[in-house]
Amino acid sequence: MKDVRKKAREFMTGYCKVCPICNGKACAGEVPGMGGLGTGSSFMNNVSALANVRFNMRLIHGAEIPDTQTTLLGRKLSMPVLAAPIGGVSFNMGGKITEQEYCDAVLGGCVDKGVIGCCGDGVPPFIHESGFATLKALNGAGIPFIKPWEDKELFEKLDRAVATGAGIVGMDIDAAGLVTLRLQGRPVGPKPLEKLKDIINHVPAKFVLKGVMTPDDAKRAVDAGAAGIVVSNHGGRVLDHTPGTAEALPAVAAAVKGQVAILVDGGVRTGGDVLKMLALGADAVMIGRPFCTAALGGLKDGVGKYLDQVRSELTQAMILTGCASVADAGRDILFPTS
Length: 338
Hints:
The structure is a single chain. The chain has 12 helices and 10 strands. By secondary structure, the protein is α/β, with parallel strands linked by helices. The protein has one domain: TIM Barrel (Alpha-Beta Barrel), CATH 3.20.20.70. It has an 8-stranded parallel β-barrel, surrounded by 7 helices. A two-stranded antiparallel ribbon has the order 1-2. Helix 4 runs parallel beside helix 5 (126-137).
């Protein structure tokens, strides 16, 4: 990973500094680019919220060889990790590899390691076209996410997403205020409950709604028929001064746990971070920016190396907290904050 990160730093010069600690401080306001919007506080809050969660270390137990496997939305995973949907290699990451190479690296690397890769959407069209092409080549083994466009474009893209063979399709409703789209004059926006029901009913696949940060929105997503939600503030790239997702997750989980698959992203860097999010109520965890670094620095091989690292870290954290399986990751493995 040291070599992968070194090459990524060279390739992403001017777009991402590939900092030793990816916390949003050095790239605040750099959108487009890999930073957070405005002051960067939402990005930074994602990282600091997770850093403030601490483990209870326990070693008198029999969890010597923990099982990291899980099932999510009917898919068996080697560990509860997904690559978040990210696009725009040319204007966010420096363009030293193509959008197609990026999608092939992330989605293909995830398939090789038994987890799920997601692909993004945006402007220009080659962003979603590259993702769709990779998904078709992988027989739909990934999740395409479509932005909350107005009806004509939205439904056309949802139909094309399903045509890739994907059994799970998502919409990142948190992209409604994305600066890069606003600058290009593209109509995206929030969706009222009845419209969201129409969207979900239109899709003959399991539907995941990304961008849920409150219990009331989580309940509305369930009412609309979503099979899964992602607690996400879009990596801190759409609204300044939001809480970190690790702060928002427990209340969302308390409201809808068991009714819908709960995913979360934001500030996740290590396997230990994954375990923290599971303990806070998530069923699985999405990781974003580290996959950009891995893909830019090493293509599919770099993605595989990063996933190997995450799994090793997750296994170690499970051993040291007494988790024989990921299902054992409850609040008791966390040190109480009050």
